[in-house]
Amino acid sequence: MAAVSDPVDLRAPWRPARPEPPPTRFHQVHGANIRVDPSGTRATRVESFAHGVCFSREPLAPGQVFLVEIEEKELGWCGHLRLGLTALDPATLAAVPEFSLPDLVSLGHTWVFAITRHHNRVPREDRPEAEALAPSRPPALLVEPYLCIEQFRIPRDRLVGRSRPGLYSHLLDQLYELNVLPPTARRSRLGVLFCPRPDGTADMHIVINGEDMGPSARGLPAAQPLYAVVDVFASTKSVRLVQLEYGLPSLQTLCRLVIQRSVVHRLAIDGLHLPKGLKDFCKYE
Question: What are the backbone angles phi and psi of residue 84, rounded to the nearest 5°?
Answer without folding.
Answer: 175, -155
